[in-house]
Structure formats: structure tokens, C-alpha cells
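Design review, sub-item: ligand-bound model
Attendees: FS, YL, KQ
YL presented the inputs for the zinc ion complex:
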Amino acid sequence: MATIMNAAVCYGFKKPLVIDRILIDEPRAHEVEVKMTACAICHSDILYMDGAWGGRLPTVYGHEAAGIVVSCGSNVTHVQQGDSVIISLLRSCGICFFCNRGLSNLCEYHFPTDQPRRLQGLNGIDIHRGLGTGCFAEFAVVHQSQVVKVPTDMKPSTASLLACGVITGYGSVVHTASVSPGDHVVVIGVGGVGINCIQAAAYCSAATVTAIDINEDRLNSAKRFGATHAVNSQQDDPVDLILSLTDNRGADFVFVATGNPHASNRVFLMLRRGGKLILVGMPPVGADFKFEAVNFIDANQSILGCKMGACNLQSDIPELLNLYARGEFEIDELVSTEFSFENINDALDATRNGVGLRNVVVFWFQHPTVRIELVEWKCNRLFYFWNTRMTQTNINRILSMEDRLKTSKSTEINILQIRKPASWLPLKSSLRFGFTCDRKSNKTSQKFSVSVLWITLRWYWHCFCRW
Ligand SMILES: [Zn+2]
Ligand SMILES: [Zn+2]
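KQ shared the predicted structure:
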């Protein structure tokens, strides 16, 4: 049974997203439904939204997310209702040609979540899911291989970054390049992926890690995350520096973590004989990359493409969580700004303009200041659930209500950000609502009063006019 949710829908390339009420299908076999808590803005979303990669519209993008599992289809084995998870675009069937060869990031299976009608407008129009995820929405239904459990006390915006930017940068260094202690590493482009190439190279004890960018703020961030040298390529020539650091041989590895193909033009001048060039950042369709073949062959160099860090989600995310817990891999500091879901277009513009390392959209029920999570109408009494954080205890309390509500004479009311999760509660068996408030504003209490008044009015309307 499809249910209603709010989603930021792309109806036209290069146009702002529209927050719309749309329908999402329930999870089928091997699928899970996740209630979103945070979704980071990745440059791949921007490229899709700007039409650089084509694709069909309307579409819900967003693929670097964190949330809470609210329901599971049959045969879901490694997560259950109430688990905190990250959601990635990486998905694997476990049985295809590539999965059988340990290349799960290249899985070729056609997943049922890509079939028509899994998302649709209230007018019946089919809505697509960008990169097989569709996380710029309150809920997403994905294949179980796309989610990995994370600690419940992990901040959602931090957790979300694990799903794309962190694993891509980390995996390109650890899996694709296999950087060893003493290697000389160059990273071109210090964005959400490049910064993780830098800290992974530092973690691998590279002798030097040189960051190249044209943004001073990002170069300063690079130094905080382990870069030994930082070069603004608009002011200085990085080739001279890298040759001086390497006895004129060049770096062992050069990572191109930007989607700008022009950034790759001079890379071979920085790369030593036998060195490896790793292309990590995704350029637009049609962007080409030219190099002098004879020199390349004579120098025995290599060019490697790297999709999502060549990571295996189910083994690499736990490994990164261990490094994070031990303080050996920094993720909290990668989050530049949190935007509310309503302001998603501001978050997209900030990313487009190169502001911050990673901008993250957080969802209303995770707003830390004031929140009514759920109200239950039962036996003429109202139970309020006030939270300052979505803790595991509160999640369990909400989930445990299902059975109790089935036997009560309750009625559902739709107010603001409400959804009727059929998987949780039968229609007309619950009363639930929520609202947002601006944590930065001093007018929190005023907004709160207005919201409560409005909710009360709506409630009376239901009591006396509709029932
Ligand atoms: Zn991404
Ligand atoms: Zn597969």
C-alpha cells in the first residue's frame, strides 16, 4: 500500500526542487523502508539536477543519507525496525557476475526498486529515483544491501557522509591505489571526496600529501585533515613544489577528485615514472581527458577509474566506524552547515557555489531544540512525546505503540509534516503530528505557541466537524 510523504522533486533541469506530497510504495522482498534523518548534498546530485548526465524527470535525487528503519519486506536479514542506518547508492545482489568476483560496486542486477510506480505523484504521474535511492524525501525504500547499521547515538548528519563522500575518498586511497607508508600523494580538488582522499592518505602514513585547489578555505581545511602541503593553483604552480618534494621524480599517486576535466591536464607532470593517476571525481557526460600516449607508455604509468572508492558497503562502513570511534578518521568536522529540509534549495546553492566541504539537509523530526514527535489519542487522553533527540528509547516507544493503537479508538490527523506510515499503523488508527521550529531563532517559543494553537484548531475541527 502506497503512503504519502513530502519529497523534494526535480521537475526541470537547472530549476529549484519543489517540495511536494507524493506517494511511496511499501517495501517488497529484500527491501527496507527508511525514515530519513539527514541527507548530504553531493556534487553528483547537482550534476544530475543540472542535466549534465541526462536522465528522466520528474525525479527525487539524494543518495548520501542516514535514517531509521521503519519497516522491512520479507527476507531482510541484516537490519530490523528501529535500526539507525546509512543509505548509499551502492547496492549488490550477491549473486551476479561482478558480485561473485568481489566487485559488488559494479553489480549488474536490475533491482525492483527501479520499476515504475515505486514513487508517484498524487495525480498518478510516475516519479523516478535518482541513483537508485531518492533520499531528498522523508522516506526511502531501498534494497537491503544499500543500508548499513550505524550506532544510534551517531549524529545523523555525520553518519550520512559515510554513504558516499567518505567511502569514495577512503576507498580510492585504500583499495584502488593501496597507498603505502612513505608514498608521495597529490590530491586535486578538496571537496567532499578529495578531503577524504587526503585524510585516508595521511592515515596510510604517506610521506607527503599535497592538496591542490583554487579555494583558500578548502586548502586550510585540507591542512586540518592531514595535508602536508597546500597549493592554490591559481597563484602557484604545483608542479614545481611536487618535483621539489620528490627529488624531481614526481608523486607516486595523483588523485583527481574534481569533476572538472581541465584539472587533469597537467597531472602527468606531477606523476613519477610508474606512478598511478586515479580519477575519482565524476565529470559531466562528454567530458574527455587527453594525454600524450607515447610518454605515458614509456613511463609505465597507469590511469585508474574509481567508482565509489571500489568499496564493499557491508565491510568498509564498519571498518570506517571503527576508525571513527578510535579517533583515527574524522567525520564530524566534514559537516559544514545543516539546512532544514524546507531549505534544501539553499543547501544545493551553497554546494553549487563551493561553500563548505559538505552541506547536509536534516529532517524536521531530528531538529534538536523542540519537537513533538508523536501524539496518541487513546481513551480520552493525550500522550505527548517530547524529544530533544531521537534516541533509541524514544524510537522504541514509538514503535511499541503499534500494538496498543490497534486496539484503541483513535483517529489519524494530518498536520504539517505528517505521514501515514501504513507499515506502522493501520489507517485511522493513530493520531500523529509534528512541526518544525528554527533552533537559531529567539522566537522559538512564539512559533511553538502558534503551532500548538493551529494543531489544536485542527484537532477541534476533526472532533466536531468531521467525526
Ligand atoms: Zn555522491
Ligand atoms: Zn550483483
